[in-house]
Amino acid sequence: MTKHTEIRYVSYSPKKMFELVADVEKYPEFLPWCIASRVIAKENSKIIADLMIGFQIFREKFRSNVSLDRKNMQIEVNYEEGPFKYLRNKWKFNKFKDGCEINFFLDFEFNNIFFQTLMERLFSEAVKKMVFAFEKRATYLYDD
């Protein structure tokens, strides 16, 4: 089991950051190790999506059910199928001064012990790199 919690502060509104994270179809454009994204179903507050992740010669596809709570500025990702025993991911966006406080939580375990061992070694840096990719994407989209 691998868990990570991170809090970041950015100069963009909670609404902008929420929409950036909710735009799953764009992940391959900027998110490290995300090779492809396909939305299977989309409603106002739910998305079912497949993501293809890759690292060197390894590639895995997994499906998630994404709940979008715009009222509370919260996104929850629940794993449906793929290479994990389980995967839980939660984003919470709070107003903070002239920007946003981002609370990020990730908890997962791979079915494959090799992947799990590899990720445990790289996990902290990998998650920081992923969260930074969202910040960098916000700068690209929202700065003049």
Measured as a percent range, the helix fraction is: 25-40%
CA radius of gyration is 15 Å
Low-confidence spans: pLDDT under 50, at least 5 residues?
none
Q: Mean pLDDT across all residues, rounded?
A: 87
Strand content: over 45%
Within the largest sheet, what's the order of strands? 1-7-6-5-4-3-2
Taking the sheet with the most strands, its summary is: 7 strands, antiparallel
Class computed from helices, strands and strand pairing: alpha+beta
Number of helices: 2
Oligomer: single chain
H and E order: EHEEEEEEH
Cα distance, first to last residue?
Answer: 41 Å
- Count of beta strands: 7
Q: Mind explaining what this structure looks like?
A:
It is a single chain. The protein is built from 2 helices and 7 strands. Helix 1 packs across helix 2. The mean pLDDT is 87. The chain has a 7-stranded antiparallel beta sheet with strand order 1-7-6-5-4-3-2, covered by helices on one side. It is an alpha+beta fold and 144 residues long. The chain is globular. Helices cover 27% and strands 51% of the residues. It starts with a strand and ends with a helix. The longest helix has 30 residues. A hairpin with a 4-residue loop joins strand 4 and strand 5.
